[in-house]
Amino acid sequence: MVRKAFAALGAVLITLGLLATPASARLLPLAPLQTLTWTANNSVTAYASAPATAVAGETTIVFENSEATGNTSGMSHTLTFDTTTDGYNHNVTTNIVANPFDPTNGRHEVTVTLLPGKYRYFCAFPGHETMTGELIVTDGGGGDTTPPTVTAAVTGQKDPQGNYIKSASVTLTATDTQSGVAKTEYKVDSGAWTAYTAPVTVSTLGAHMVHYRATDVAGNTSPEGMASFTIVDGPAQDTTPPTVTAALTGQRDPQGNYVEVATVSLTATDAESGVDKVEYQLDGGAWTAYTAAVAVNTAGMHMFHYRATDKAGNTSPEGMSHFTVVKSDTTAPTVSAAVDGTKDGDGNYVGKATVTVAATDAGSGVGTIEYKVDGGAWTAYAAPFPVSTAGAHTVTFRATDKAGNVSPEGTVTFTVVAGDDTTAPTVAAAVTGDQDANWSYVGKATVTVTAADSGSGVASIEYKLDSGLWTVYPAPIVVTALGSHVLKYRATDKAGNVAAEQSGSFKVVQIGPRPDACPDSDVRETVVIGDIDSQVENIDTGNGCTINDIIAENAEYASHDSFVRHVKAVTAELVDNGVLSSDDRGRIVTAALESSVGGSPSSLPDSARSNVV
């Protein structure tokens, strides 16, 4: 019964795309179910532990990157199986991202089928390139004396006599039901045997014979196969890509969202060589061959890309469709609150009490959490919050799911009494660096924040640069973004007293003479795209070019979607360089989506458009 249950789970994982079953996969005698465990910690050079060998068959893969395995920094790692490098098995497409603070506390499991041979695994995050290894899988005994089976398929544009016009493509497929395929080889006419890694294109005019064979892991080589065909010259080749369109169907709510599921159907046509393949990509995933309408039932906003390729190799421009799926959820979330802090003998909280609110929803998911203190205004809950005013308090809380269901209100009551320390810390900031004659900092400025508290001691120092978020101050901050900056800073002591917020300003200028890359700048006060005003200040980006200059709305774009992708890319770089905040980038991208630059905007519900960044 256990073996049947895991076989059923494997079928589910195949459906979800967690377990790949290529054409070369084969049924193996079931080995005892095994569990292989990888762990990670604070290191970016190696996994904390990893298996070296395994036996072919159903296998539970466990990847844990948690505090229990030594990750005390909150760093994310992946366990990714290589599906492209020659010499390794490629049937396992597991790609697990684990973080100590994710919903499963960094521990993840998937069930896969391991084949005899060798697998390569690695961490896919930049900077973690040396976190890699190999897993050797044996067949558990029994000799393999049966060679692989290998077939050839020849494709291309034909004339009425069956000859291939201009070129033919040969695709080889090899399978082995025991030890597995080790290599596939081919030779064209009387040429040398060559390792097969991708379809082979033959374009020399005349008759041809492609020979092919395969060898399994046990060393058995298949009989040599042959495919013959003739290449002839013909009319001018097809250079026009196919036309491909998408149609969305499904039940929609008043806001234009799709309820439960949205179905995407693709249609491609090509008047010359004919359509060879149609592909799609969902939410930035892998390109996948389109064979039938695609049903998307995951709640949230989605981006669906698609393209088509004809038999002459011309590929259409990518198309895009945006849509949002919501669940028909009628059950409100469950919400609770907890109060923490230092208590006196009467159970009162000394100095302050910290309130944490948590909500769960098994249907459409939690949309918002709100709270109010002592009958005040409802406030969006983002993180645990302190209540430091002395006296009795009541905190009321509620949650709303993505389907609009609101939970009953909950309450917690408690009393805060004043501690011995009622004096806030003192906090100061200093800016240092090379300055020019105008007191501007050349190239960079270093900001140092200090705090002192003679009572309970300093608990934390925070700073906020320009329009960024409040951030814990760890060490002196080096600011290299050119332009004027505003620094705000504050400190909190261990009794909960918060120093008054202070601020200062400074300016960073470029080293040496500042080049003007855009002498004829667009100097409108705000970033305007087409006739859409983003309300974001059109500032100089540091080299004489304004944000509107960088966006270049009057340049040539293949489509509206191409323009939007350009805006997303350049504004992301401006955020990385400290020129834009994430919120301002979102407003600019939304303006680009709503504009008509490059053509008509893609169909996107109004409720989702503001979320697209």
From TrEMBL:
Keywords: Copper, Metal-binding, Signal. One of its GO terms (molecular function) is metal ion binding. Transmembrane segments: none annotated. InterPro entries: BlueCu_1_BS, Cupredoxin, Ig-like_fold, Ig-like_OmpL47-like, Ig_E-set. GO terms for biological process: carbohydrate metabolic process. Residues 1-25 form the signal peptide. SUPFAM superfamilies: Cupredoxins, E set domains. Coiled coil: none annotated. This is Ig-like domain (Group 3).
